[in-house]
Amino acid sequence: MSDIAAARLSEAELARNFADIHPPLDARTARIDANRCYFCYDAPCMEACPTGIDIPNFIRKIATDNVRGAGLDILDENIMGGACARVCPTEVLCEGACVRTAQEGKPVPIGALQRYATDWLMASGEQPFKRAAPTGRKIAIIGAGPAGLSAAHRLALLGHECEIFEALPKSGGLNEYGIAAYKVPDDFAQKEVDFILGIGGITVHHNKKLGRDIHLADLRRNFDAVFIGSGLGAVQALGLKGEQIGGLYNAVDYIAELRQSKDKTALAIGRRVVVIGGGSTAIDIAVKSKRLGAEDVTLVYRRGPEAMSATEKEQEFAQVNGVTIKHWMRPVAIKTNGANVSGVEFEHTKVIADGGLTGTGDMVVIDADMVFKAIGQIFVPDPVCEEASRLDLHNSKIAVDETYATSIEGVFAGGDCIDGNIGLTVAAVQDGKLAAAAINEYLAKK
Amino acid sequence: MADLTYNFAGIRTPNPFWLASAPPTDKEYNVVRAFEAGWGGVVWKTLGEDPPIVNVSSRYGAVNLGGQRMMGFSNIELITDRPLDVNLKEIARVKKNWPDRAVVVSLMVPCEEEPWRKILKKVEDTGADGVELNFGCPHGMSERGMGSAVGQVPEYIEMVTKWCKQHSDLPVIVKLTPNITDIRVAARAAVRGGADAVSLINTINSIVSVDLDVMAPTPIVDGKGAHAGYCGPAVKPIALNMVAEISRDPECENIPISGIGGIANWRDGAEFMALGCGTVQVCTAAMHYGFKIVDDMTTGLSNWMDAKGYQSIDDFRGLAVPNLANWNQLNMNYDIKARINQDLCIKCGLCHISCEDTSHQAITAGRVNGARHYEVVDKDCVGCNLCMLACPVDDCITMERVDKDKPYMNWNQDPRNPLASAAE
C-alpha cells in the first residue's frame, strides 16, 4: 500500500517550514556587509550579472545610507531586482565572481543587499518611474512572466501602451507558480507585479492562451508589435512504461499546486519520495517534500554532483534539509503496486570514452510512495507554430536574432522560450528589457 | 621574558600602560577595577577647586567608519564633578592598597600661584606618585581661563610649572594641548619651567558630526552642540608626530614623554615608545571595550619584545627617532617600482583605477586568456605606494628597489634643486 497523506506536520510546523529561508538584512547588518565591498574597478560581479547592474555602485550607496539611490540603480537595469535578489543562484553569478570569494571564500552577500535596497524602495510606496510622453503605439505581449513583464515595463516607460495576454489566472510566471515558496514568501511575486504595473500603460488579460483564446495573426493585425514571452510548455517524459500511473508527478505541477495552495495541511505527500533529476526544480521538490513531512526523500541523478545543474550550494541545501542525493543512477522502470507507484528501478551508470553515459547492468530498486519527475521542461511550439508556419525554431526553441526579432516581421521573443536562454529569472528579465529597446527602435523606423 | 617595569621620571610602574586622566579614572571604584585588570598606573581624573564643576547631559560623540564604531571619539565633559576631599580620600586609599601601581593626579586650578600651592599640598598628603598639569582640555574649562587656555601660552606653561616644582617635591608631568601650531614651543616652555616629563596629546578641537535632521553638531544638548575634544584611533597619527617632534628637538633635552592619543593595543604603544615615550596612556579604547584590553597590551608588548630580543623598554625606546628626518635629507636617488604578485591578485582593479584616475597611469588593465590582468609600466611608475596601499590583499603589491649603484643624494645636493649647494 502506498502511503500518501496530508497533514503529516502541524499547521505551525508547516508555517515555519515555508517561511522565508533567508530573512532580510537589517539596516546595520546591511551597512556592515556593504562595507566589505571593495568597490572594484570593472567589477567581476557586474560582468557575471546577466542584467548588468552596477553592483559596486549600489552597494556603496547602501553603505552610505543612500538606499533609494541603490534601489534605483538596481531597478533601472532589472525591474524584477526584488525577485532576482531572492531566487538568483548568486553563488554562480555575482557572488561567485566577487573578488572576496577569490580572496577568502566569503563573498559580499550581493543578493541579500540587493533585496535590502529593493525592499526598501518598494516599502516606501513610491512609484519611481515616470513614463515618457505617449507614442500612440500599442504592443501585444504574450505571457506575464519575467520576460513579458520586463518588456512591458520598459515599453511603458518609453511611452508605449502594452497589453499582456496571460494563459494563467495570475501574473508573475514562474515567480508565482514555480519558484520555491520559502524563497518568495508573503505573496512577494504579486506585490512585485503590482509594483511593475504601477508605472501605468500596461493592461493584463488573464486566462488568455495563445492558440485557444488569442491568435498571433490577430495580434499582429491589431498591434504595432508583438513580444512572445510564453516560457516553456511541458515536462520531458522519462520515456518509461507506466508514466501515467498514480503517484507519479511532474515536479513543476506539484510545485505550482503548492504555491497556489492556501492551506498546506491539505497537501498530500508520500512517506517515501523519490525525485528524478539534477536541477533547481529537483532540489526544490525534494526539499519541499521533506518540509511537508515526507520521511525519506531520495534525489537520484544519472551523473556526478559536478554535472548537476543545481549549484553546489543548492545541493548542500537539499542535504541539510535531510534529502539523500544518489548519483550515477538512471531510471529504467517504474515499479507499481496495483494502480499506484511502489518504487523506481535504477541502473547504475558510468561514463564511457566519448563522455556519454552507459548502464553498468547493476540494478537497484528504491521504494517510493510518490515519484517526482524533474528532468527539465521543453518548449511546446505547437500554439505559436500552428499560428504561424513561418516562425523559425532552433534547438527546438524560437529562433531570434541579436535584436530578439523572430523570423516574422514585428514579432519579437525572449525568456525561456527562445534559443540560447539559460533558464533563469534574471536572464528572462534581461531579454525582456533588451527586446523592448529593440521594439522601440523597430517602431521608430516603422 | 621581557621586563615591562619602568621608572618614568621617578614614578615606578609595573608596566608602561596607564589609564589617562578621564572618566575611567574618576573614582576609586573604576581605578580598582583597572588595577585588578592589570593596568600599570592611572592618571586620576583632573581635580579642581571646590565647588565641583557641573557637567551637561549628552557628553560624547563618535566617528564610525565602515561598520567600526568609535574610530574617533569626542567629549564635552569637564574635570571631575565630585568634591575635592572625596577624590583625595579615595586616591589615598587606592595608593595605600595598590602600592606597586603608579597613581598620578591630574590638576587644573586657576592660573594663580596660591591655588596651585594649596592643592599640591593636599595631593602630596595622599601619597600619590606624581602630578600631571592639565594644560590641555580644549572645551569648557578653557573658556574659564584654564586647560588649553594655559597650554596655548608658553609663558603660562613655564610659570605654572615653576610654581609646582617650587611648592612640591612630586614629579611634575605637563600635559600638552595639540591645539597649537608648533608643539615644541609648548614643550620647551615646560622644560624651562623644570617639568620632569610631558604627556601628550590632549584632545583636539573638533566637531565629529553634524546631525542633518536637527542641524546641530553632535553631541547634542537640547538642540545645540559645542566644539568637543577629539580622541580615539583617528588621532594617533597626529599624536605620533607631535611626540616625535619633541623627541628630536634638542631644546627639549630628552624630557621623558608619556604618549597619549588613540592607543588601543600593544602595537600602538610600541610605536609611541619607538618614538621616545616611556609610558603610554589610554582612554578611548578602555571606554569602548572595558579594562580587559590591557591584557593584550602587556602580553603583546612582552611577546614582541621577546621576539625582537629587547629586554627592557629602554632597549627600544626612541629607536625610530633618528630615522625621522627632514624632507630635504631624504635620498633623491632612492627608486622603487610597484610589483604585482599575479598569483595573489584577486582582480579587483583598484591598483589600476587608483593609478589611472588619480596618479600616473602606470598600471594597465588588460586581459590574459579572458582573465583580468594588471601590469605595472615601470617607466611611468614613480614609486608612490598608492597601489600597494589600495590593494586589499596583503603582500600582493610590493615595492621593489631598482636604483643600482647610485650614491645617497639629498635635495640640497640635487642638481635639479635651483638652490642646491655643491655636493661634497
Describe the fold and architecture.
The complex is a heterodimer of chains A (446) and B (424). With 446 residues, chain A is of the alpha/beta class. Helices cover 37% and strands 19% of the residues of chain A. Chain A contains 18 helices and 19 strands. In chain A, helix 2 crosses helix 9 (110-123), helix 4 crosses helix 9 and helix 15 (280-292) packs parallel to helix 16 (312-320). Chain A is globular, with a radius of gyration of 23 Å. The termini of chain A are far apart. Chain B has helices at residues 28-37, 84-97, 113-126, 148-151, 154-167, 183-192, 236-247, 266-274, 284-289, 294-308, 313-316, 350-358, 386-390; strands at 6-8, 11-13, 17-19, 41-47, 60-65, 68-75, 102-107, 130-134, 172-175, 197-200, 204-206, 210-211, 216-217, 228-231, 257-260, 277-282, 336-340, 363-368, 371-376, 397-401. In chain B, helix 3 packs across helix 5 and helix 5 (154-167) runs parallel beside helix 6. Chain B is globular, with a radius of gyration of 24 Å. In chain B, 44% of the residues are buried. Chains A and B meet through helix 2 and helix 8 of A and helix 12 of B.
Keywords summarizing the entry:
heterodimer, A: about 450 residues, alpha/beta, FAD/NAD(P)-binding domain, Fumarate Reductase Iron-sulfur Protein, Chain B, domain 2, 3 domains, five-stranded parallel β-sheet, 18 helices, 19 strands, about 35% helix, B: about 425 residues, eight-stranded parallel beta barrel, four-stranded antiparallel β-sheet, 13 helices, about 30% helix, globular
